[in-house]
Amino acid sequence: xPQRNSVQHSSGHFVREIMSPLGPxxxxxxxxxxxxxxxxxxxxxxxxxxxxTTLVGTIxxxxxxxxxxKKGSDPKETIVREAMRIQVQYxxxxxxDGRVGQLMREREIPHLVVLDRQRVPVGSLNLDELPLPAxxxxxx
Length: 140
Hints:
By secondary structure, the protein is an alpha+beta fold. It has a single domain (13-127), classed as CBS-domain. The chain has three helices and six strands. It has helices at residues 32-41, 61-71, 97-107; strands spanning 20-21, 46-50, 55-60, 90-92, 111-115, 121-126. The strands form two sheets. Strands 1-6-5-4 form a four-stranded mixed beta sheet, with no helix packed on it. A two-stranded antiparallel ribbon has the order 2-3. A hairpin with a 4-residue loop joins strand 2 and strand 3.
């Protein structure tokens, strides 16, 4: 009997059909204060870090809070590169949204940056914005 989480849910739709526009991004040389302002102003949990159009990391409000509160860093002097995450979770805009959503749920990934096949960031995908998969029929 196959395991439930090994089933691949296909929706027949591409990620590009449901993703949000890329929105704000920051450079690795921006200050933490600038990044924090953009996070709050655009009501985001995460910002992509681009150099110049290449995705080099992501930064979360929690990353900024930890660096400022635990290490006493000055957010007006400390740059994003010092707090950003370099292991970026991403998907491609031509991937099946059902399969991507399933992987996000299984791996508890709340946010993905969406890239085109030239690896240019084109959007974002948040787990809470994805439609829930259709229920599988019960097997006797």
